Amino acid sequence: RAKQMGRGTEYIYEQSLQHEITEKARFEVLLRRALEDDLILVYYQPIIDLKTQSIVGAEALVRIKDPDTGSVVFPDSFISIAEDTGLITQLGEKVLQTAVLDIQKLRNKFNQDFYISVNFSNRQFQQEGLLDLVKDILELSGLPPSSLLVELTESLLIQNNSQSRHVLTSLHDLGCKLAIDDFGTGYSALSYLNQFPIDILKIDRSFIEKCESNLTDQSLVVAILNMSQGLGMKVVAEGIENEFQKAFLLSKGCNLGQGYLYSRPIPFDDFSTYLEQY
Ligand code: C2E
Ligand code: MG
Ligand code: MG
Ligand code: MG
Question: What's the superkingdom here (predicted)?
């Protein structure tokens, strides 16, 4: 019986591995098709000044419209595949261009100084011509470089690769803002913060989520806020879902945030309507 169970487990393992491989292949096909057939969607989540409740910008978040089912596929299913296959270059370009043009439309429509925050994968910083691409897109759209916020992860800074260092410095010199996404989840060494021109820390959602019940997480949030002040960086809280979290953040001096309390990521037209009604 035990032997049988052992074999059974192995069988199930093989099956789930097989399933994973099939799923990956399926998403790769979907991604390639989406890039060809213009099925890449960019959703927007407003970033709020918690004190005044005004909208200061938005984060661009990619989705794919599955042409077979009509459903929307979320990035967790395909970003790592895009990175592994190198398709992230093309995908990143598409998202950046769409997001910059969209936000510039809204800036003109509402005569407001919104900024756009765009996620970049590590691999994109190795992309030849990335700087020229960013410059071209900014010029074409008319968006001031200071209204483009580049979101990167701690792992990029830890790699400390000379090419990405050059790109980051150049983007910063151009006037773009640099933000560390999911801050606090990556690494314990903080020395890299002084070695790159970082403007913004985005506190990972996990800290915000737990700060309600967990004093340790509260003190971590406070520590990040204190540190950012010393370093001259701004802080954006991710994943604010309720009034308690918002009040806590405000009481500790965190003035910027995004989360379901305000809005989920929404398509461009809905975002435009949201701005109109807000
Ligand atoms: P992220 O950059 O940390 O984006 C925030 C994620 O948290 C988004 O998930 C957003 O929908 C979700 N979120 C925001 N507020 C709340 C909240 O109050 N509660 C909860 N439960 N979730 C909230 P999403 O859109 O599924 O994106 C997941 C990740 O995929 C992103 O995490 C980012 O790392 C990556 N990603 C998204 N778009 C792009 C892109 O264009 N390029 C690259 N390289 N990565 C992207
Ligand atoms: Mg992000
Ligand atoms: Mg992220
Ligand atoms: Mg994040």
Answer: Bacteria
Closest to 134 in 3D by CA, of 112, 150, 157, 122: 150
Three-state SS across 213-232? CCHHHHHHHHHHHHHHHHHC
Instruction: Measure 142 CA to ligand 1 centroid, in angstroms.
Output: 26
Closest of 111, 121, 115 to residue 75, by C-alpha: 121
The model scores a pTM over 0.80: yes
Atom 11, ligand 1: residue with shortest CA distance: 265
Q: At 106, list the tokens.
A: 């809204």
Percent of the chain with pLDDT over 70: 96
pLDDT confidence bin for 62, thresholds 50/70/90: very high
Residue 209, ligand 1, Cβ within 6 A: no
Rounded Cα distance between 193 and 83, Å, is 25
The ipTM estimated for the assembled molecules is: 0.98
User: Does residue 75 have its Cβ closer than 6 Å to ligand 1?
Assistant: yes
